[in-house]
Design brief:
single chain, 389 residues, alpha/beta, Rossmann fold, Rna Polymerase Sigma Factor, Chain: A, 7-stranded parallel β-sheet, 4-stranded mixed β-sheet, 16 helices, 44% helix, 15% strand, binds nicotinamide-adenine-dinucleotide, binds magnesium ion
């Protein structure tokens, strides 16, 4: 496969994850449109090496520095540069060998490399929602300064983005984010208190990485997405609404000022929003399964149960108060999910841990980037201190 200059050169940060692997499937199906120039992974050196042999990027980065030797040796016979560690992710993100970063690292760890890519003028296909939850004001401002497009990969935000095509400056009245409700839709706290990790990892409609799957079960994912939507589409907090739509066919909607509602629909498949972000403004043909209107189906909508799924209340609070509170919420949530996945705390304990951390870390109204990093660290330390050893 020759590397033609007309192909869009992709840097795939987080290539071994759920989004990363599906992005490579999209690239496999469109070899004349995209080339892979950078692949990065945190721990999974074996898959990273396999991907590197197949896609022949210019550079690979393994996050875990202890694995550098192994990756370097495995790729010794091919002309691929190998780097390791957190700093390398940022350095590589600033390089000129690619056109678009697909930001598919999970969690706060995605922020620094994504920001570097923005600062060096690269288009961003953004899966890593935590980047905007933590420091949305700074990231979006730098993107404006650098005239860098940030195209959402998150299915709800991709839906809204697609609904906005052709609307110019027509004002939005409301954005309605749809949520499947996760595996515990309709359940009450007396059930949730006993939920274990393996059950929470079974999502009815989407097959995703562990962290976002737990976030979907607690509805924190939707809370993070409300904050993500605010920054991506320049909305006021009261313009963002959540509705439970268990079938995940309508991926989100916009209510415009004239009362008209636009939605984007399709079977739940992340390859579609990934492909759209990579090919925008064009649509390219795909063989993804089609929704079939001949099969009887009901599309239903209901209000989220805020008494049971209190994470959504905490996230809404962070959305409205702003400042460093979304950053603190995110950090505490990462610690809580990590602890739950290791069976260290229960399902409902996650919410308590996040709430107490939000009450503990001092509020900063307009944080600098450094202050965001400090708030993140402070929140992590405090949240971790609440988990009994
Ligand atoms: P995942 O856990 O499957 O993959 C995460 C990737 O990030 C892996 O390649 C891993 O090696 C890398 N990574 C993990 N920790 C890292 C660190 N500290 N430093 C550098 N790299 C690290 O996650 P995913 O489900 O693919 O999700 C990725 C992002 O996309 C998340 O922010 C998630 O919220 C968002 N997202 C995912 C989906 C989905 O369907 N999976 C949908 C919408 C949005
Ligand atoms: Mg989503």
């Amino acid at each position: 496969m020759l590397k033609g200059s007309s192909r869009k050169r992709i840097a795939l940060f987080g290539s071994t994850g759920s989004i990363g692997k599906q992005a490579l499937e999209v690239i496999d199906a469109n070899p004349t449109l995209f080339s892979v120039e950078i692949l990065t992974a945190q721990n999974n050196d074996e898959l990273l090496v396999k991907q590197a042999r197949q896609y022949k990027p210019d550079i690979v980065v393994i996050g875990d520095e202890r694995k550098y030797g192994k990756v370097k040796e495995a790729l010794a016979s091919v002309p691929i540069k190998v780097f390791a560690g957190e700093k390398a992710l940022e350095e590589v993100a600033a390089m000129d060998n690619y056109d678009m970063m697909l930001a598919a690292i999970v969690g706060f760890a995605g922020l620094r490399p994504t920001l570097k890519a923005v600062e060096s003028g690269k288009a961003i296909a953004l899966a890593n929602k935590e980047t905007l939850v933590v420091a949305g004001d700074i990231v979006m401002q730098r993107a404006v300064d650098k005239k860098v497009p940030i195209i959402p990969v998150d299915s709800e935000h991709s839906a809204i983005f697609q609904c906005l095509v052709g609307e110019g400056r027509n004002p939005i009245e409301k954005v309605v984010l749809t949520a499947s409700g996760g595996p515990f839709l309709g359940k009450k706290p007396n059930f949730l208190v006993n939920v274990k990790r393996d059950h929470a990892l079974q999502h009815p409609n989407w097959n995703m990485g562990a962290k976002i799957t737990i976030d979907s079960a607690t509805l924190m994912n939707k809370g993070l997405e409300m904050i993500e939507a605010k920054w991506l589409f320049n909305l006021q907090p009261e313009q963002v609404q959540v509705v439970i739509h268990p079938q995940s066919i309508i991926h989100s909607m916009i209510l415009f000022q004239d009362g008209s509602i636009k939605s984007q629909m399709g079977l739940p498949d992340m390859k579609l929003p990934i492909q759209y972000a990579m090919s925008f403004p064009f649509r390219i043909a795909s063989d993804f399964p089609r929704y079939d209107f001949k099969k009887p189906a009901t599309l239903s909508f209901e209000e989220p149960d805020l008494k049971t799924f209190r994470n959504l209340v905490l996230a809404t609070d962070a959305l409205f108060k702003g400042g460093n509170l979304p950053c603190v919420l995110n950090a505490a949530n990462e610690i809580a999910v990590f602890a739950f996945l290791r069976n260290r705390i229960g399902f409902l304990d996650m919410t308590d841990l996040i709430e107490r951390t939000m009450q503990h870390v001092p509020f900063i109204k307009s944080p600098t980037l450094e202050e965001y990093f400090e708030s993140d660290g402070e929140a992590r330390n405090f949240a971790a201190s609440l988990i009994k050893l």
